Amino acid sequence: MPNDEQWMAHALSLAKQAELQGEVPVGAVIVRDNTILGEGWNKPIVSNDPTAHAEIQALRAACSQGDNYRLPGATLYITLEPCIMCAGAIVHARIERVVFATSEPKTGAAGSCVDIFNIPQLNHHVICEQGILAEQSSELLRNFFRSRR
């Protein structure tokens, strides 16, 4: 898609907001018809909320703005492969497509550890693509964790 890189760059800028708050630098933005519906970055530490991942923040904002818990036709751009919790929420929100920058081999639920988006028994399947601005996202994460050690 022609705007994938643009929207992933926006998600990376959100990830930097998380980093400024001492959070793992992950950002997410939900787009439909080239319009932002919602966005967010990791906030579990500052909010004392284990569910406050970037994807959940973006889903909450988009659903609130649209006054609907479902987001058909929307694309979610994330700087890191979603975890099982976030992948489940994405399926429930009926997100059409997920684009993530870099994989998460330890907890990734879009193909690395499990593939929630393509479980045959589920009534909604999510189109998933990866690799857009992967190096930039990986570098941001590496630098963050290197500074913590």
State the low-pLDDT regions, or none: none
- According to DSSP, the number of beta strands is 5
Overall geometric form: globular
Q: Report how far apart the termini are.
A: 38 Å
**Could you describe the largest sheet, including whether it forms a barrel?**
5 strands, mixed
Description:
This protein is an alpha/beta fold and 149 residues long. The protein is built from five helices and five strands; from the N terminus they run αββααβαββα.
Task: Describe how the helices and strands are arranged.
Layout: H1 4-20, E1 27-32, E2 35-41, H2 44-47, H3 54-66, E3 75-80, H4 84-92, E4 97-102, E5 127-130, H5 134-148
Parallel strand pairs: 3-4, 4-5
Antiparallel strand pairs: 1-2, 1-3
Keywords:
149 residues; 5-stranded mixed sheet
Please sum up the structure shown.
With 149 residues, this protein is an alpha/beta fold. It has helices at residues 4-20, 44-47, 54-66, 84-92, 134-148; strands at 27-32, 35-41, 75-80, 97-102, 127-130. It has 5 helices and 5 strands, in the order H-E-E-H-H-E-H-E-E-H.
